[in-house]
Amino acid sequence: MKRLITAAALLCGVAGPVHAQAGLRLEGVAGVTGIETLSTPQGERVSAASLSLFGATLRPTADGWIVVLLGDTLVFRSGSPVFTAGRDVVQLAHEITAADGMPLLPAQFFREWLPARWPDRFAFREGTLRVQGVVTARPPADPRPRLVVLDPGHGGRDSGKIGPNRLHEKDAALQVSRRIADALTRRGIEVQLTRTADTLVALADRPRLANRWKAGRPAAVFVSIHMNSTTSTSARGFETFFLSAARTDDERRVAEMENAAAEFDDGPSIAFSEEDLILNGLRNDFYVRASNDLAEAIQRSIARVHDGPDRGVKRAGFRVLVGALMPAVLVEVGFISNPQEARRLGDPAFQAQVATAIADAIETFFVTHEHLWTGS
To answer: For residues 205 and 367, what is the distance between their CA atoms, to the nearest angstrom?
Structure first.
């Protein structure tokens, strides 16, 4: 009698002789000769649970599922004909459905997309999916909550910049940070703030605190909140920075403005060149790429609520980001030197909108980078 592995059994890692019920033979996986397919009016479908045969992990979300496979995070949503793989949006022949709590994918996903995505691992010929190379099981995700370290810029005797309406950057940064913290906490994400009151925290101590709170967990990010300023009162908009060598005079201007807060730190001042900051702050290319991704997610999200120009993702040598052993960005929410934006930056309704947008972006980053938190 033929035995078929069900979706639940696949996820539990049950092994044994398996024969395809219809259409999809398999070679290269020990003890498995086929993957069960289901016939529907829209064509053959295969449970995404079958991906566990190739080392994938799967977990449900509020409106779909996240699959981590071979270093990619795949996000499926029930009823949608598209899914995301990292930054890529992929169109399927038919919408994704579900059965027994598992996503059912068009067989096209296995026959066409897998071989195209990983041609060194998969090949589909003459009705057979051939698996090449060794696929190993992935370690489970860290059970601790995801961590967001929010860093309200300036504080205490360091007011930051002051707007024409007498709004202090330190106050607006703390107010926005508190609102972001509330939004993230409601979503089950752990939040720590480098300051919770009008106090001065040395720039170098902020990433150190972040690393202490991280305590070895992989799913953690550092987000520093600031308000931009320039001698021109007409400058407007928002931008997000990550730690890397500045490329433009404006990027260097912003870094010099924010790094000037070091003069308020207690103890002897230590001179750093931009090259020193980069070399001491970056441990490997992972942080650069992940920080860039987080910055892009924040920019896209803020653009939905901010009427100022989107000034884009930028890079510079910010002292406050140096040494943070996690994706780290600095957000300039708006220009406090612009009278119109200064009024909005002090408006609780606008602060709430921006805070929700940033919280949305952080949550999206965690979801779309699931492979980073599962040891891929």
So the answer is: 29
